[in-house]
Amino acid sequence: MSMIRDTRTAPDVNASRQGTLPDAEIAELLAAVSAGEPWSAALERLRLPTLSRKRHWFVNARKADFYRSLETARRDWALDIGPGSAIIAAELARDYTSVIALEHHPLWCRFVGRRFAQDGVHRAFAVQGDAMGLPCREGSIDLAVLNGVLEWIPDAAPRLAPRSAQLACLREIRRALRPGGALGIAIENRWFFGNFMGLSPHGEPPFAAVLPRRLADWQSRRRLGRPYRTWIYQAHGYRRLLAAAGFDDVRLYGAMPTYHEPREALALSAREALRPYFASARPAKDAVFALLGRLGLLGQLVHSFYISARRPLVPSPP
Question: Of 23, 78, 134, 268, whose Cβ has the fewest other Cβ atoms within 10 Å?
Fold first, then answer.
């Protein structure tokens, strides 16, 4: 079941805007399911602009493979924060006694509950709640999942600076995890090569992801009328963020080709395995990728990361 592959070092894995649907489309999907139509049939029947592009988002079970591969001492409770279509939570229910699918959006929460009921997923529960205040006792969760969620956390805490909001969320997850419990994250890479070419990972103005934060914020306010808060980081930035939140054993992998439609998780140092994902029909561009591969830099330019981290077994000193 493990999707982690490393051709060199084989690390021990045992030790609103983008990513969702407009409210009107969620409501129409929920209405069909509430009327008794199977969610999979409604998914095929409805011809809605965003939903039609995201059908794979509901059915691609490989999105759960990385999280299922993370070993935990016990497999009692898993927590999927921001479960979206709930495919990951449903797959985790194969391995864990109980799975909480924590969703803040009331319509999505109702859809998730009905999906579980229709599919006979009796070990997963849809709970409406907030990632900044988890409905979990301290030290009760074996595995927590943030799949495409951490970058949106600042929107849930507008009074906090983006990094402060992300730290607060991660510290709350750390509180809920058992000592030694695992956190799995999927998120975009700030240094993805496409971002240097003007791609916008979360609807920001071009280049905002790679610009200095203050300049990106000024650009976003000027062009979109809103601050830039969907902060993402490069590999070292994620390591620093998780360390500051009190996690250890932080490991990063390339989610290839992206975490939205993953095939495998590759170690960032796996040059030969990464190279096919950077092939280009343009000779000059392909030559640049070949050079970056020889320098061992391709892992720093992947689209997105899978990240694992753990709550320390021994409490940190005050």
Answer: 23
- Backbone torsion region of residue 269, taken as left when φ is above 0, otherwise alpha when ψ lies between -120 and 50, otherwise beta: alpha
List, in sequence order, the alpha helices (H) in 46-191: 49-53, 55-59, 65-68, 87-92, 106-119, 153-156, 162-176
Nearest CA-CA partner of 64 in 33, 87, 82, 98: 87
As given in the structure block, the two tokens for residue 37 are 């139509």
Domains of the chain, earliest start first: 4-15+62-190+232-270+303-310 (3.40.50.150), 20-53 (no CATH)
- For residue 236, give Cα distances in angstroms to 147, 170, 295, 307, 314: 19, 17, 18, 12, 24
Burial of 120 (C-beta count, 10 Å sphere; 0-12/13-18/19+):
exposed
* Both tokens assigned to 278: 């950077």
Query: For residue 183, what pLDDT band results from cuts at 50, 70 and 90?
Result: very high
**pLDDT value of residue 10:** 30
Residue 238 structure tokens: 């994620």
DSSP 190: T
pTM: 0.91
Cα 100 to Cα 75: distance, rounded to the nearest angstrom: 13
Distance in angstroms (rounded) separating the CA atoms of residues 71 and 281: 40
| Cα R_g (the chain), whole angstroms | 19
Q: pLDDT at position 317, please?
A: 60
Predicted confidence (pLDDT) at residue 17 exceeds the cutoff of 90: no
In whole angstroms, what is the distance from residue 33 CA to residue 122 CA? 18
